[in-house]
Amino acid sequence: MNSEQAAPTTIDEYIAGFPSEIQQILEQIRHTIRQAAPDAKEVISYRMPAFAQHGVLVFFAAFKAHIGLYPPVTGDEELIKEAALYAGPKGNLRFPLDQPIPYDLISRIVRFRVVEHLAKAAAKQSQKKSAPKKAKASPKQVAAPWPKGVAAPAQRALAAAGYTHLEQLTAATESELAALHGMGPKALAVLRAALLEKGLTFADG
User: Fold this and answer.
1) pTM here?
2) By Cβ atoms counted within 10 A, which residue in 2, 16, 44, 138 is the most buried?
């Protein structure tokens, strides 16, 4: 996908930014997820295609040599074992483009997450009915979206590029961020360190 293109607002727009052979793979992954989660909503989150049902079930994205699937597989030992073949350093899955894409594995991961999310939503609703109301956090209690040390010009550059949270930067390369007007090396270093503290990296990390 061309980094100079405007951030996609739909999955159709995202897929259209790739060569035809990659588009076919992305469309098949999209279809696989849709079949596994028919009630999920298609969204763009962190500049990546995602399917949401009581929270995001799964993200997917295309890179130069692989397709990424996020977040890491948890909660099912059999799925974890099967997915281990594709797990990257942070546990996110990477499907090499020169190998067959494991669509059946993707389907089973999504189906498991649907069940998991529905169960969590039901439990949360039950707790909400019985728990007393909590006081709303004051503005001072709300965490800032960017770590201390990211100056105002860099924050404006990130906002102009469509970034509002630190975790979104995992979908961007360091060179893409460095090219933003107002993004200096100091701010970039602070962001890199903040991602590492969370066990994350830039897309080229």
Assistant:
1) 0.61
2) 44
Write the burial class of residue 198 (CB in 10 Å: 0-12 exposed, 13-18 middle, 19+ buried): exposed
Distance CA 193, CA 149 (A): 11
Number of H helices, E strands in the chain: 7, 5
Query: What tokens appear for 23 in the block?
Result: 């588009």
Alpha helices (H) along 65-102:
77-83
Q: What angle do CA 53, 138, 164 make, to 5 degrees?
A: 50
Nearest Cα to 204, choosing from 179, 170, 180? 170
Give 162: exposed, middle or buried? Use CB within 10 Å, 0-12, 13-18, 19+.
middle
122 touches 50 (CB < 8 A)? no
